[in-house]
């Protein structure tokens, strides 16, 4: 699993897939960090993606490196009201800090994936590496 975490830290920007009225929705998204086998992300509670995550709390996130190595995370979404998680995100991400300014911004929502799977693969012909978390 460390290989997946290192990959996502080096390649945090990818796409997050949700379901909206029974149809797939994909948008650019950024992985924040991993802690205690939980993969953290954030969004605003004013966005459609937030409503989609509440309605159907299962997602897939995919990121690809410049060498075409890909990691896909899939799992169940759990929202976290933990201010320490929000503080860590704000402190370590300039873009998020520019949008929300402070960890106690009422629009800022953090969520993590749990009870999921990470799949790492490339075009080498080797089988994918699969990790359950």
Describe the structure.
Helices cover 26% and strands 47% of the residues. The protein has four helices and eight strands, in the order H-E-E-E-E-H-E-E-H-H-E-E. Strands 1, 2, 3, 4, 5, 6, 7 and 8 form an eight-stranded antiparallel beta sheet that branches. A hairpin with a 2-residue loop joins strand 1 and strand 2. Helix 3 (83-92) crosses helix 4 (94-100). The N and C termini lie close together (9 Å).
Name the features.
8-stranded antiparallel β-sheet; globular; single chain; alpha+beta; 4 helices; 133 residues
Write the layout of secondary structure elements.
Elements: H1 2-10, E1 13-20, E2 23-30, E3 33-35, E4 38-44, H2 48-55, E5 58-64, E6 70-80, H3 83-92, H4 94-100, E7 108-121, E8 129-132
Helix pairs in contact: 3-4
Brief overview:
With 133 residues, the chain is α+β, with helices and mostly antiparallel strands. The chain is 26% helix and 47% strand.
Structural class: alpha+beta
Rg estimate, integer Å: 15 Å
H and E string = HEEEEHEEHHEE
Q: Tally of extended strands?
A: 8
Q: Give start-end ranges of low-pLDDT stretches.
A: none
Largest sheet: 8 strands, antiparallel
Strand content: over 45%
Between the first and last Cα atoms, what is the distance in angstroms?
A: 9 Å
Helix content estimate: 25-40%
Overall, the morphology is globular
> Mean pLDDT, as a whole number?
97
Number of helices: 4
């Amino acid at each position: 699993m460390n290989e997946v975490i290192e990959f996502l830290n080096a390649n945090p920007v990818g796409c997050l897939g949700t379901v909206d009225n029974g149809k797939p929705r994909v948008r650019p998204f950024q992985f924040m960090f991993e802690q205690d086998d939980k993969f953290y992300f954030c969004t605003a509670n004013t966005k459609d993606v937030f409503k989609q995550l509440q309605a159907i709390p299962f997602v897939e996130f995919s990121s690809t490196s410049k060498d075409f190595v890909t990691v896909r995370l899939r799992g169940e979404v759990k929202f976290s009201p933990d201010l320490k998680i929000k503080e860590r995100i704000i402190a370590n991400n300039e873009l998020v800090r520019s949008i929300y300014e402070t960890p106690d911004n009422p629009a800022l929502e953090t969520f993590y994936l749990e009870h999921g799977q990470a799949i790492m693969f490339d075009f080498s012909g080797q089988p994918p590496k699969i990790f359950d978390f």
